[in-house]
Amino acid sequence: MTGEIETLADLSKHYKDSVPSDLREAKSFQWYLEEVYDDPKIARNAHQRVADMFDFYGTRYDEDAGVVEYLMASEDPLHDGENVFYGREVHESIHEFVNKVKSGARGLGPEKRIKLLLGPVGSGKSHFDWISRRYFEDYTMRDEGRMYTFRWSNLGDVIRDQDPADDVVQSPMNQDPLVLLPQEQRDMVIEQLNENLDAPYTIRNDQALDPASEFYMDRLLGHYDDDLEEVVENHIEIIRLVASENKRQCVETFEPKDKKNQDETELTGDVNYSKLAVYGESDPRAFDYSGAFCNANRGIFSGEELLKLQREFLYDFLHASQEQTIKPKNNPRIDIDQVIVGRTNMPEYREKKGDEKMEAFNDRTKRIDFPYVLEYEQEAEIYRKMLRNADVPDIHVEPHTLEMSGLFGVLTRIVEPDSDGITLVQKAKAYNGELDDGDDIDVRKLREEGESKADIGEGMDGVSARFIGDEIAEAIMDSTHRGRSYLSALSSFTHLGENLEGHGSIPEENLERYHRYLEMVREEYKERAIEDVRHALAYDLDEIRRQGEKYMDHVMAYIDDATVEDELTGRDQDPDEKFLRAVEEKLNIPEDRKDDFRQEVSNWVSRRAREGTSFDPQQNDRLRRALERKLWEDKKHNINFSALVSANELDDDERNAWIDALVDQGYSREGAREVLEFAGAEVAKSELEG
After folding, report:
1. 322 with 429, same domain?
2. Which comes out higher in pLDDT, residue 677 or 251?
3. pLDDT tens per residue, range 117-153
4. Are 151 and 243 members of one domain?
5. 528 belongs to a structural domain
6. Contact 42, 148 (CB under 8 A)
7. Residue 592 sits in which domain range?
8. Of 137, 115, 102, nearest in space to 251 by CA
9. What is the rounded distance in angstroms from the CA atom of residue 568 to the CA atom of residue 546?
10. Do 94 and 146 belong together in one domain?
11. Checking CA distances to 529, which of 3, 61, 96, 616 falls within 20 to 30 Å?
């Protein structure tokens, strides 16, 4: 055991501390007025409360990506990071969604629009919608997000035909208590609230009471000779309102069903047949406020696969969004206040987009594209999250395995570049931030080109992280069944290649292209595996430092048009151009760009000298890579590559030293043996071909 056993008393106290202290208390309307004067945000509408929710859990500006990240999505503090979102594109989409909610909070128009999350399957839009609902529930439990509603009490004392079972009735729409005030008097209160409000929006409320509450108010005012104070003091109790999707309170989801089994009453509510005999058909007390729009009032309405709904249902959304009212069958209109979110996949959107009969609906939606991740290292983080959240067997994930799987996913999502000077893999690396100072690649131009050439947007098509994650999971289980304690990129490639044809969401016309992309990824992995083995076999820190110092001495002499002292003879000589080019060619720096690179490295050294930092080639990534490759070229002729693929020499001291060096780079011992054999065979083959 790692800690003390929790007793029932401990658990009970923990629960009690987690709920609002006034959750079960009934307050007076006068108390509510005093509270709302002291904290006007209590009377916020749904858009204002949801907008503040995103800010409440924290924000961070990612300077590298140039986008605002909301910590509820980038860190998920409520669930210990279990539901973190990755990728610049995704966080841009979340930011766009929040901006539309914030615009709605200010009354700029989006409050009267459906926020439609559009994206391919598995892009995370449903999960973002889900996590928004969970955080809204939590926010309303806190003082910063609190809201209240009211209930009618002692109704049978005045209304003689009231069913005794209905002596106490909670506001059917969970409305804010301010709606109990007639509009003129309500406006007087709201004017005072806005004078005390510290927010970028103003409090507004011009809703009418729901029909049942309007009925009670009219009867009670008649009884008390229009004395509003008597009505609220004798028959109104203010209660805390907490959002709960399970209770269908302020949060509601709605999904399409078979046409024969679904009608509009699921959205707007229906007659309460058990009350018909008591009140009669036209009595508002005989209406059941159980429609999805009714349940979502004061909070979030979430429409799953929204565009799969029949056109008749979508008409209900026109009034709900634009007019912020619903009109149930055989019942007066009902005002609603909620953030309406819809989700849809690409095929349904394409179908409805060209439908002229959908023009009014399309005009009342604000589309937010939710694309796939386009940075392959961020994509790899999605797979890591999947593994963290699962009961994964005791298996070691080898270096590059998740990144190369992510690279394959990204290649299927981005548009082939027009420029002959850049390959698709280079474009993916550029999106990933792998740009050297000397690279002539304009990432912004690449993104603009991708957006213009894509059907709807770059990243809105391709292979999903869900599919790749499933194949990684299969590869893990396959490795376990084979008695292997590691997962390598090679086994992941095998599962991806074998299962592309069997995945139903991949169009057949894309299969040949996707297999070609997988070969590109194999080639990229081969280069990385060889680089790792090269590092293990030939790495010599002292030699790299010595070669680095020699390179810089000759570069400085070249720039200053000076001479350098020969290491052996001590005589002055011209800079060794052959040696300089031998280093630079390892980075594929052409002859006409050598001066730029040399000046770049010289400036870097001078800058470090001014800062009081000594020269260290390990601190310059490009120079370090070039020197490592130069050292490899110098040493590889003395390495027996056949030994790398020979099982008979597994116990050889030199081979074990190589394995140890690979383990230091993050490999398991079994994985190190595999990459030695793979890279050794590839290098041996290239040597023979050379």
Report:
1. no
2. 251
3. 999 988 999 999 999 999 999 999 999 999 999 999 9
4. yes
5. no
6. yes
7. 547-620
8. 137
9. 14
10. yes
11. 616
